Amino acid sequence: MEQVQINQDDTQLSSTKTIFSLQGKLALITGGGSGIGFDIARCMVQVGATVVITGRREQPLIEATESLGERAYYMVNDVTARELLDGLVNQIESTYGPIDILVNNAGVNMKKPALEVTDEDFDRIVYTNLNSVFSLTRACAQRMMARSCGSIIMISSMAAYYGIDRVVAYAASKSAVEGMVKVLASEFSGNGVRVNAIAPGFIETAMSKTAMGGDPDRFARAMRRTPMGKFGQPEDIGWAAVFLASDAAKYITGVSLPVDGGNSIGF
Ligand code: NDP
Q1: Distance from the CA of 227 to the center of ligand 1, in angstroms?
Q2: Euclidean distance between CA atoms 243 and 207, whole angstroms
Q3: Domain limits for position 140
Q4: What is the rounded distance in angstroms from the CA atom of residue 4 to the CA atom of residue 149?
Q5: Which of 29, 111, 125, 265 has the highest Cβ tally under 10 A?
Q6: What CATH number does the domain containing 63 carry?
Protein backbone atom coordinates (compact mmCIF):
# COMPACT_ATOMS: atom_id res chain seq x y z
CA MET A 1 0.00 0.00 0.00
CA GLU A 2 1.34 3.46 -0.86
CA GLN A 3 1.71 6.00 1.89
CA VAL A 4 -0.98 8.50 2.76
CA GLN A 5 0.16 12.00 1.87
CA ILE A 6 -1.35 14.67 4.03
CA ASN A 7 -0.76 18.23 2.88
CA GLN A 8 -0.58 21.42 4.99
CA ASP A 9 -4.28 21.34 5.73
CA ASP A 10 -4.26 17.88 7.21
CA THR A 11 -7.91 17.25 6.32
CA GLN A 12 -6.89 17.16 2.64
CA LEU A 13 -6.09 13.51 1.95
CA SER A 14 -4.46 13.43 -1.43
CA SER A 15 -3.07 9.94 -1.69
CA THR A 16 -3.51 8.12 -4.96
CA LYS A 17 -3.91 4.70 -3.37
CA THR A 18 -4.55 4.15 0.30
CA ILE A 19 -6.99 2.03 2.20
CA PHE A 20 -9.31 5.08 2.08
CA SER A 21 -8.93 5.50 -1.68
CA LEU A 22 -12.02 5.45 -3.88
CA GLN A 23 -10.01 5.50 -7.07
CA GLY A 24 -11.86 3.85 -9.93
CA LYS A 25 -15.16 3.92 -8.03
CA LEU A 26 -18.34 5.59 -9.24
CA ALA A 27 -20.57 7.22 -6.62
CA LEU A 28 -24.14 8.39 -7.09
CA ILE A 29 -24.95 11.11 -4.55
CA THR A 30 -28.50 12.44 -4.42
CA GLY A 31 -28.85 16.10 -3.47
CA GLY A 32 -25.17 16.56 -4.28
CA GLY A 33 -25.50 20.10 -5.57
CA SER A 34 -25.46 21.75 -2.17
CA GLY A 35 -24.97 21.33 1.56
CA ILE A 36 -23.85 17.99 2.92
CA GLY A 37 -24.28 16.19 -0.42
CA PHE A 38 -21.89 18.58 -2.13
CA ASP A 39 -19.21 17.97 0.46
CA ILE A 40 -19.70 14.21 0.28
CA ALA A 41 -19.04 14.55 -3.46
CA ARG A 42 -16.05 16.85 -2.86
CA CYS A 43 -14.42 14.48 -0.36
CA MET A 44 -15.05 11.45 -2.56
CA VAL A 45 -13.56 13.19 -5.60
CA GLN A 46 -10.55 14.12 -3.51
CA VAL A 47 -9.80 10.44 -2.84
CA GLY A 48 -10.20 9.46 -6.46
CA ALA A 49 -13.89 8.69 -7.05
CA THR A 50 -15.95 9.77 -10.01
CA VAL A 51 -19.26 11.22 -8.85
CA VAL A 52 -22.69 11.74 -10.32
CA ILE A 53 -24.74 14.23 -8.31
CA THR A 54 -28.46 14.78 -8.62
CA GLY A 55 -31.02 17.35 -7.56
CA ARG A 56 -34.14 19.09 -8.80
CA ARG A 57 -32.52 22.44 -9.68
CA GLU A 58 -30.02 22.49 -12.53
CA GLN A 59 -28.11 25.68 -11.70
CA PRO A 60 -26.62 24.49 -8.38
CA LEU A 61 -25.68 21.21 -10.08
CA ILE A 62 -23.85 23.04 -12.88
CA GLU A 63 -21.97 25.17 -10.36
CA ALA A 64 -21.20 22.16 -8.17
CA THR A 65 -19.80 20.02 -11.00
CA GLU A 66 -17.71 22.96 -12.24
CA SER A 67 -16.21 23.32 -8.81
CA LEU A 68 -15.75 19.54 -8.32
CA GLY A 69 -13.68 19.18 -11.50
CA GLU A 70 -13.48 16.72 -14.31
CA ARG A 71 -14.54 13.59 -12.43
CA ALA A 72 -17.98 15.03 -11.60
CA TYR A 73 -21.21 14.79 -13.56
CA TYR A 74 -24.78 15.73 -12.82
CA MET A 75 -28.28 14.57 -13.67
CA VAL A 76 -31.33 16.69 -12.96
CA ASN A 77 -33.61 14.33 -11.07
CA ASP A 78 -36.39 14.54 -8.52
CA VAL A 79 -36.12 11.47 -6.29
CA THR A 80 -39.86 11.58 -5.65
CA ALA A 81 -40.51 10.61 -9.29
CA ARG A 82 -40.06 7.02 -8.19
CA GLU A 83 -41.13 5.50 -11.49
CA LEU A 84 -38.16 7.21 -13.18
CA LEU A 85 -35.46 6.00 -10.78
CA ASP A 86 -34.76 2.69 -12.47
CA GLY A 87 -34.27 4.60 -15.74
CA LEU A 88 -31.97 7.07 -13.99
CA VAL A 89 -29.77 4.26 -12.71
CA ASN A 90 -29.75 2.64 -16.17
CA GLN A 91 -28.77 5.89 -17.81
CA ILE A 92 -25.96 6.53 -15.31
CA GLU A 93 -24.59 2.99 -15.64
CA SER A 94 -24.70 3.00 -19.43
CA THR A 95 -23.02 6.42 -19.58
CA TYR A 96 -20.47 6.30 -16.74
CA GLY A 97 -20.22 2.64 -15.72
CA PRO A 98 -21.38 0.57 -12.75
CA ILE A 99 -22.40 2.45 -9.63
CA ASP A 100 -20.18 1.26 -6.77
CA ILE A 101 -21.44 3.66 -4.11
CA LEU A 102 -24.92 5.06 -3.54
CA VAL A 103 -25.35 7.92 -1.07
CA ASN A 104 -29.00 8.63 -0.30
CA ASN A 105 -28.45 12.19 0.85
CA ALA A 106 -31.36 14.18 -0.65
CA GLY A 107 -33.83 15.04 2.05
CA VAL A 108 -36.35 17.60 3.19
CA ASN A 109 -37.33 18.83 6.64
CA MET A 110 -40.30 20.71 8.01
CA LYS A 111 -40.62 22.32 11.43
CA LYS A 112 -44.19 22.49 12.73
CA PRO A 113 -45.94 21.41 15.92
CA ALA A 114 -47.27 17.88 15.38
CA LEU A 115 -50.88 18.97 15.85
CA GLU A 116 -50.56 21.34 12.89
CA VAL A 117 -48.95 18.86 10.51
CA THR A 118 -51.40 17.97 7.75
CA ASP A 119 -51.53 14.58 6.06
CA GLU A 120 -50.11 16.25 2.94
CA ASP A 121 -47.19 17.69 4.95
CA PHE A 122 -46.47 14.34 6.53
CA ASP A 123 -46.69 12.43 3.26
CA ARG A 124 -44.41 14.89 1.42
CA ILE A 125 -41.60 14.56 3.94
CA VAL A 126 -41.87 10.80 4.30
CA TYR A 127 -42.20 10.32 0.54
CA THR A 128 -38.93 12.15 -0.13
CA ASN A 129 -36.90 10.88 2.82
CA LEU A 130 -38.12 7.29 2.92
CA ASN A 131 -40.20 5.98 0.01
CA SER A 132 -37.91 7.46 -2.64
CA VAL A 133 -34.83 6.29 -0.77
CA PHE A 134 -36.18 2.75 -0.88
CA SER A 135 -36.94 2.87 -4.61
CA LEU A 136 -33.53 4.25 -5.59
CA THR A 137 -31.76 1.86 -3.24
CA ARG A 138 -33.61 -1.11 -4.76
CA ALA A 139 -32.72 0.01 -8.30
CA CYS A 140 -29.02 0.32 -7.41
CA ALA A 141 -28.92 -2.74 -5.17
CA GLN A 142 -30.36 -5.04 -7.86
CA ARG A 143 -27.35 -4.20 -10.01
CA MET A 144 -24.85 -4.21 -7.13
CA MET A 145 -26.08 -7.62 -5.97
CA ALA A 146 -25.64 -9.00 -9.50
CA ARG A 147 -22.03 -7.78 -9.36
CA SER A 148 -21.54 -8.90 -5.72
CA CYS A 149 -20.13 -5.56 -4.59
CA GLY A 150 -21.30 -2.16 -3.51
CA SER A 151 -21.67 0.28 -0.66
CA ILE A 152 -24.93 2.01 0.19
CA ILE A 153 -24.97 4.93 2.62
CA MET A 154 -28.11 6.51 4.04
CA ILE A 155 -28.09 9.92 5.66
CA SER A 156 -30.06 9.65 8.87
CA SER A 157 -30.33 12.26 11.66
CA MET A 158 -30.26 12.83 15.40
CA ALA A 159 -34.05 13.05 14.95
CA ALA A 160 -33.94 9.24 14.67
CA TYR A 161 -32.01 8.97 17.96
CA TYR A 162 -33.99 11.12 20.39
CA GLY A 163 -37.11 13.26 20.53
CA ILE A 164 -36.67 16.61 18.81
CA ASP A 165 -39.88 18.62 18.96
CA ARG A 166 -41.69 19.89 15.84
CA VAL A 167 -40.18 17.48 13.31
CA VAL A 168 -42.56 14.56 13.57
CA ALA A 169 -42.60 13.57 9.89
CA TYR A 170 -38.88 14.06 9.49
CA ALA A 171 -38.13 11.99 12.62
CA ALA A 172 -40.48 9.24 11.46
CA SER A 173 -38.81 9.11 8.05
CA LYS A 174 -35.28 9.01 9.42
CA SER A 175 -36.17 6.40 12.05
CA ALA A 176 -37.61 4.23 9.30
CA VAL A 177 -34.42 4.67 7.28
CA GLU A 178 -32.46 3.38 10.27
CA GLY A 179 -34.68 0.28 10.30
CA MET A 180 -34.22 -0.15 6.57
CA VAL A 181 -30.43 -0.11 6.98
CA LYS A 182 -30.56 -3.10 9.33
CA VAL A 183 -32.85 -5.14 7.08
CA LEU A 184 -30.97 -4.37 3.87
CA ALA A 185 -27.62 -5.03 5.53
CA SER A 186 -28.95 -8.42 6.64
CA GLU A 187 -30.16 -9.25 3.15
CA PHE A 188 -27.27 -7.89 1.07
CA SER A 189 -24.05 -8.08 3.07
CA GLY A 190 -23.43 -11.80 2.53
CA ASN A 191 -23.16 -10.96 -1.14
CA GLY A 192 -20.67 -8.11 -0.77
CA VAL A 193 -23.06 -5.16 -0.65
CA ARG A 194 -22.67 -3.20 2.58
CA VAL A 195 -25.39 -0.88 3.87
CA ASN A 196 -24.76 1.77 6.54
CA ALA A 197 -26.08 5.09 7.76
CA ILE A 198 -24.44 8.29 8.89
CA ALA A 199 -26.39 10.22 11.50
CA PRO A 200 -25.24 13.84 11.31
CA GLY A 201 -25.56 16.05 14.33
CA PHE A 202 -26.12 19.75 13.77
CA ILE A 203 -24.28 20.62 10.56
CA GLU A 204 -24.02 24.10 9.05
CA THR A 205 -26.19 24.01 5.89
CA ALA A 206 -29.24 25.75 4.44
CA MET A 207 -31.45 23.12 6.09
CA SER A 208 -30.09 23.66 9.59
CA LYS A 209 -30.19 27.45 9.12
CA THR A 210 -33.91 27.19 8.35
CA ALA A 211 -34.49 24.91 11.35
CA MET A 212 -32.50 27.14 13.72
CA GLY A 213 -33.14 30.53 12.12
CA GLY A 214 -35.00 32.87 14.45
CA ASP A 215 -35.06 30.18 17.13
CA PRO A 216 -32.19 30.98 19.53
CA ASP A 217 -33.66 28.69 22.17
CA ARG A 218 -33.46 25.69 19.83
CA PHE A 219 -29.91 26.61 18.90
CA ALA A 220 -28.90 26.93 22.57
CA ARG A 221 -30.50 23.57 23.42
CA ALA A 222 -28.67 21.87 20.57
CA MET A 223 -25.35 23.33 21.64
CA ARG A 224 -25.89 22.57 25.34
CA ARG A 225 -26.04 18.86 24.63
CA THR A 226 -23.16 18.86 22.14
CA PRO A 227 -19.93 18.21 24.08
CA MET A 228 -17.83 19.75 21.30
CA GLY A 229 -19.94 22.90 21.63
CA LYS A 230 -20.20 23.78 17.97
CA PHE A 231 -21.94 22.91 14.71
CA GLY A 232 -20.27 20.43 12.37
CA GLN A 233 -19.22 21.25 8.83
CA PRO A 234 -20.56 19.42 5.75
CA GLU A 235 -17.10 17.95 5.14
CA ASP A 236 -17.26 16.16 8.49
CA ILE A 237 -20.03 14.07 6.94
CA GLY A 238 -18.07 13.89 3.67
CA TRP A 239 -15.06 12.24 5.28
CA ALA A 240 -17.26 9.81 7.21
CA ALA A 241 -18.88 8.82 3.91
CA VAL A 242 -15.44 8.31 2.35
CA PHE A 243 -14.53 6.02 5.23
CA LEU A 244 -17.73 3.97 5.06
CA ALA A 245 -17.47 3.62 1.28
CA SER A 246 -13.80 2.63 1.36
CA ASP A 247 -12.03 -0.66 1.98
CA ALA A 248 -11.12 0.68 5.43
CA ALA A 249 -14.73 -0.12 6.37
CA LYS A 250 -14.91 -3.47 4.56
CA TYR A 251 -16.17 -5.31 7.68
CA ILE A 252 -18.66 -2.60 8.65
CA THR A 253 -22.29 -3.06 7.70
CA GLY A 254 -25.66 -2.32 9.28
CA VAL A 255 -24.40 0.50 11.48
CA SER A 256 -25.53 4.05 12.03
CA LEU A 257 -22.47 6.23 12.61
CA PRO A 258 -23.15 9.43 14.54
CA VAL A 259 -21.02 12.33 13.27
CA ASP A 260 -22.24 14.82 15.77
CA GLY A 261 -19.58 16.31 18.04
CA GLY A 262 -20.97 14.02 20.74
CA ASN A 263 -24.52 15.37 20.49
CA SER A 264 -26.09 11.91 20.70
CA ILE A 265 -24.35 11.11 23.99
CA GLY A 266 -24.30 14.60 25.54
CA PHE A 267 -26.15 15.22 28.78
P1 NDP B 1 -29.97 21.03 2.13
O2 NDP B 1 -31.39 21.48 2.19
O3 NDP B 1 -28.88 22.02 2.24
O4 NDP B 1 -29.75 20.18 0.79
C5 NDP B 1 -30.65 19.19 0.42
C6 NDP B 1 -30.27 18.71 -0.95
O7 NDP B 1 -31.22 17.71 -1.36
C8 NDP B 1 -30.32 19.81 -2.01
O9 NDP B 1 -29.20 19.68 -2.88
C10 NDP B 1 -31.61 19.55 -2.76
O11 NDP B 1 -31.49 19.97 -4.11
C12 NDP B 1 -31.74 18.03 -2.64
N13 NDP B 1 -33.11 17.57 -2.70
C14 NDP B 1 -34.15 17.88 -1.89
N15 NDP B 1 -35.28 17.28 -2.31
C16 NDP B 1 -34.94 16.57 -3.41
C17 NDP B 1 -35.66 15.76 -4.31
N18 NDP B 1 -36.98 15.56 -4.19
N19 NDP B 1 -35.00 15.17 -5.33
C20 NDP B 1 -33.67 15.37 -5.49
N21 NDP B 1 -32.93 16.13 -4.69
C22 NDP B 1 -33.56 16.74 -3.67
O23 NDP B 1 -29.84 19.94 3.26
P24 NDP B 1 -28.57 19.34 4.02
O25 NDP B 1 -27.39 19.35 3.14
O26 NDP B 1 -28.51 19.97 5.35
O27 NDP B 1 -29.09 17.85 4.23
C28 NDP B 1 -28.63 16.74 3.48
C29 NDP B 1 -29.09 15.47 4.20
O30 NDP B 1 -28.56 15.46 5.52
C31 NDP B 1 -30.60 15.36 4.34
O32 NDP B 1 -30.99 14.01 4.19
C33 NDP B 1 -30.84 15.80 5.77
O34 NDP B 1 -32.01 15.25 6.30
C35 NDP B 1 -29.60 15.27 6.45
N36 NDP B 1 -29.28 15.91 7.71
C37 NDP B 1 -28.87 17.23 7.78
C38 NDP B 1 -28.54 17.80 9.01
C39 NDP B 1 -28.05 19.20 9.15
O40 NDP B 1 -27.78 19.64 10.29
N41 NDP B 1 -27.87 19.97 8.09
C42 NDP B 1 -28.64 17.03 10.25
C43 NDP B 1 -29.09 15.67 10.07
C44 NDP B 1 -29.38 15.15 8.84
P45 NDP B 1 -32.75 20.55 -4.92
O46 NDP B 1 -33.48 21.48 -4.02
O47 NDP B 1 -32.16 21.23 -6.13
O48 NDP B 1 -33.56 19.36 -5.31
Answers
A1: 25
A2: 24
A3: 23-205+233-259
A4: 25
A5: 29
A6: 3.40.50.720
